[in-house]
Amino acid sequence: MILPIVGYGDPVLRKVGQDIAADYPNLSDLIANMYETMYNAYGVGLAAPQIGLAIRLFIVDTEPFSESDDLKPEEKEQLKGFKKTFINAKILKEEGNEWGFNEGCLSIPDVREDVYRKERISIDYFDENFTKHTEVYDGLIARVIQHEYDHIEGILFTDKISTLKKTLIKKRLQNIMDGKIRADYKMKFFNKKGR
Ligand SMILES: [Zn+2]
Asked: Which whole number is the average pLDDT over 23-50?
């Protein structure tokens, strides 16, 4: 089932997500619905707050990035096979140089900005079978995980841009909040009543 994606301005996007237990109600259906919702919107990641749940759950599938021309063959291969569900994730360490990448977000349609993040992360998480993993990621995979991880901490990529750029997109963010925009997928807008 495709779920509406919560737009910028909804307070749920600002909540720190709660850990969930293995018996969280209908968890496998919820995860399946999140994948369907993400693929329908051509996203590479989706976090539970974006479908209205302040819990520590996000999904990543970097396959669309594997089409980029400026990647080495082994990088393409890696991105193609990377599909993972992260539950109760905790970033243990972020290391390396900060690098810029033009990020977007399904909750903030048609806004893209360069965001600077460290290149490598160590992360603890449980998969969809509640098996615990500790892993290290870098490059684009780390980037997508960092973006989604921010969502479960109540942080958006627009928080990480310069004051000038924030000013330039202010009107656009207000329009998203008010539902005065059109997206190619189903959305739920904070200030828009009756739909
Ligand atoms: Zn996002």
From this structure: 98
Q: Give the predicted TM-score (pTM) of the model.
A: 0.96
Q: Tell me, in angstroms, the distance from the centre of ligand 1 to residue 104's CA.
A: 7
The catalytic position among 98, 135, 148, 153 is: 148
Per-residue pLDDT tens over the stretch 47-75: 999 999 999 999 999 999 998 888 888 88
Ligand 1 center–CA 70 separation, angstroms: 23
In this prediction, residue 69 carries a pLDDT of 83
Cα–Cα dist 40/176, whole Å:
19
CATH of 5-188, one of 3.90.45.10, 2.20.25.90, 3.30.230.70, 3.10.25.10: 3.90.45.10
